[in-house]
Amino acid sequence: MVIILADYVATSFFEVSFGDRIAGLSGQFTAVSGLSIEFDYDVYNEGGSNYPRYFFKNVVPQTLNLQQGTVTTADSFAAWIDMVNRGKTVPLTGTVKLKDHTGQEKRSWTVQDAFPVKYVGPNLNSLTSELAVSSIELRHNGCL
């Protein structure tokens, strides 16, 4: 595989946005994983054929992990979490944008039907110079 240096983004961050100002998530993160989609198939073996047949069944939910960042719309994120706490799971479609050190967008992904499954807040210690890091996990139905 040949890596073209012009396509490589050395110092980057991810801008993440789901929902709106009422309920959702918006923030910047340095690590994002789980930008994937997986399909589930039923497998049938027919007589007289050496190969099985595959029939699409559904999309397998994936987990999007957002790390090392801060949610910039705390009120709307809290509202989204509150809806889930009250049993009103509201899946939202959102975007993950890869940006370079100047803030220019290099690539984006649309994530379908995401809802929060885990939030880990930052460890706060005023005696250290560490970044306040939070981690958020969202279950979703794939991305493009």
Textual characterization of the structure:
It is built from one helix and eight strands; from the N terminus they run E-E-E-E-E-H-E-E-E. It is mainly beta. The strands form two sheets. A six-stranded antiparallel beta barrel has the order 1-2-5-8-7-6. Strand 6 and strand 7 form a beta hairpin.
Short description:
By secondary structure, the protein is mostly beta strands.
Task: Lay out the secondary structure.
Blueprint: E1 12-19, E2 24-33, E3 38-44, E4 53-60, E5 62-71, H1 74-85, E6 92-100, E7 105-120, E8 134-140
Antiparallel strand pairs: 1-2, 1-6, 2-5, 3-4, 5-8, 6-7, 7-8
β-strand number: 8
Percent strand equals over 45%
* Helix and strand run: EEEEEHEEE
Average pLDDT confidence is 87
Question: For the terminal residues, how far apart are their CA atoms?
Answer: 23 Å
The structural class is: mainly beta
Unreliable spans are none
Note the total helix count.
1
Portion in helices: under 10%
Radius of gyration: 19 Å
Please indicate the count of domains.
Answer: 1
